[in-house]
Design goal:
The protein is of the alpha+beta class. It has one domain. It is about 30% helix and about 20% strand. Strands 1, 2, 3, 4 and 5 form a five-stranded mixed β-sheet that branches.
């Protein structure tokens, strides 16, 4: 009996290459999935930062309206306003022109407002909030007469009415990653009666 060497056909090598290819494809898919999840988490964090900065800017504007003395409110297009404007309603005589509210106007509009920068990120907050930015705009809308709190509205009682002014506050903010982009990440509004 003689022992003859058998010919090897390379099947093991071929199976090993196929298994290696399948493992490489699975690893590549896992890397792409992880990268996508990381981007989604980063965008969500940036959106939350922008929301917090916009809300803080809104509260800053409300604090200004709560002060005894208010800054001067001027018409849109006036110099020196920096965030404090009188109402700018649509012009009924110019029906052909499309009205855009103050907070939606851009540099391309003829009468666009100057936004006031919020100071919420001025006190060196921790990263990444320090790269976020926010600003606000206050519009004096209308005045309204109402009874003083606790007063009766009956016809035979003495009237104690006072004028109340309504303001609209618009705050916008960009998160840490979107601070250099044109469109704000978050836009918030509130009304304030004084």
């Amino acid at each position: 009996m003689s022992c003859r060497p058998q010919r090897q056909r390379g099947v093991v090598l071929l199976v090993g290459l196929v298994v290696l290819l399948v493992l490489s494809l699975l690893a590549l898919g896992s890397i792409r999935s992880t990268t996508l999840e990381e981007r989604m988490t980063g965008n969500s964090q940036d959106q939350q930062i922008a929301f917090q900065v916009a809300e803080a800017a809104l509260r800053e504007a409300e604090a200004i309206l709560g002060q005894p003395m208010l800054p001067a409110f001027v018409a849109v297009g006036s110099t020196g306003a920096a965030g404090f404007y009188l109402a700018d309603p649509p012009d009924s005589s110019a029906a052909a022109s499309r009205y855009r509210p103050l907070w939606l106007r851009t540099a391309a509009d003829t009468r666009n407002p100057v936004w006031r920068s919020a100071t919420v990120t001025a006190d060196a907050p921790p990263p990444p909030i320090d790269r976020a930015r926010g600003e606000y705009l206050i519009e004096q809308l209308d005045s309204d007469e109402e009874a003083s709190p606790g007063e009766s509205l009956q016809a035979d009682s003495a009237e104690d009415r006072r004028e109340r002014i309504i303001y609209r506050i618009t705050a916008r903010a960009w998160g840490a990653a979107t601070a250099d982009q044109a469109a704000p990440a978050v836009l918030l509004q509130s009304t304030f009666k004084r």
